[in-house]
Specification:
The chain is an alpha/beta fold. It is built from ten helices and eight strands. Helix content is 37%, strand content 13%. β2, α2 and β3 form a beta-alpha-beta unit. The radius of gyration is 18 Å and the shape is globular. The two termini are 25 Å apart. The protein binds NADP nicotinamide-adenine-dinucleotide phosphate.
Length: 273
């Protein structure tokens, strides 16, 4: 749930590297469309991905179905000035063949002052070009700096690297966000497929009748205010991943995973991919 009270699907679809390989294109589009059929209606993309190619592919995939989708894109930090943000957003809208984004994120912190980016995001919101805005890859100090600025209270999410092997945010950033009911969008929830090949997780999953990818996703989905956005380019894998929603983990299973993949014991620098 967003801080505004609007509900969004906890299971979305990532698109990094989509649109890069012509041979894979048709299946990538079919996968995104199948996701819409099966309720994974949040789609995460960015102007950065393939220099706009991922947005173009998403535009094709959602053609005629825009109203079913909760569409998320991101502005690059070097574009995140007062005018640059507006212009980047308009280019994204063109590639996506739509008149609005549901959520627009600052991709990571760059040299532009937060106040300037926030002013641009608020202007885009007033103009109806974006419905909500938020941030990505901001650490606790960044959040404490941006939140009190004009427009900072409207930040709807922080999209962060978060999975069983990247639990650093649980030390201080996640509690800070939870206290404010700001959901986390967990990116690289499969650690870019490394978790799928993790032998300990594979053994756990086998033991409980799920696949390794399902176990990784079910662990994230067990938490309130966490949205997962795994990327997969094949329909068969998408069906498998969505199966995570049918495996609500028990307290005992969560404790077992906590022993295999321990939580942080102290603060650490925010990890990014
Ligand atoms: P990910 O979702 O953790 O992993 C994607 C990889 O896992 C792909 O290689 C995919 O293969 C593979 N995969 C998916 N399901 C599988 C399954 N059931 N079995 C085996 N392999 C499977 O990594 P990600 O793409 O980095 O992260 C997800 C999304 O988060 C991105 O696409 C992007 O939208 C977003 N993201 C945001 C940031 C940011 O800075 N804000 C950074 C990174 C990612 P195939 O594609 O071949 O199916």
């Amino acid at each position: 749930m967003l801080p505004s009270g609007e509900r969004v699907p906890a299971f979305g679809q990532g698109t990094w590297f989509m649109g890069d390989d012509r041979a894979a294109r048709a299946e990538e589009i079919a996968t995104l469309r199948l996701g819409l059929d099966l309720g994974a209606t949040l789609i995460d993309t960015a102007e950065m991905y393939g220099d706009g190619r991922a947005e173009q592919l998403v535009g094709e995939a959602i053609a005629g179905r825009r109203d079913e989708v909760f569409l998320v894109s991101k502005v690059l930090p070097q574009n995140a000035t007062r005018r640059g943000t507006v212009s980047a957003c308009e280019k994204s809208l063109k590639r996506l063949k739509t008149d609005r984004l549901d959520l627009y994120l600052l991709h990571w912190r760059g040299g532009v002052p937060f106040a300037e980016t926030l002013a641009a995001l608020a202007a885009l919101q007033s103009a109806g070009k974006i419905r909500h805005y938020g941030v990505s890859n901001l650490d606790l100090a960044d959040m404490q700096e941006i939140a009190p600025l004009p427009g900072g209270a409207a930040i709807a999410t922080n999209q962060l690297l978060y999975n069983l092997t990247r639990r650093g945010i649980e030390w201080d950033l996640l509690p800070w966000l939870n206290a404010r009911r700001i959901p986390v969008m967990a990116y690289s929830p499969l650690d870019q497929a490394r978790l799928v090949n993790n032998q300990q997780l594979a053994a756990f999953a086998r033991n409980y009748g799920m696949t390794t990818a399902q176990a990784a996703l079910a662990w994230l989905l067990a938490q309130d205010d966490v949205i997962v956005i795994p990327k997969c380019a094949r329909r068969e894998r998408l069906r498998e991943n969505l199966g995570a929603l049918d495996h609500a983990l028990t307290e005992a299973q969560l404790a077992e995973l906590g022993r295999l993949f321990p939580p942080p014991q102290g603060p650490s620098a925010l990890e990014m991919l």
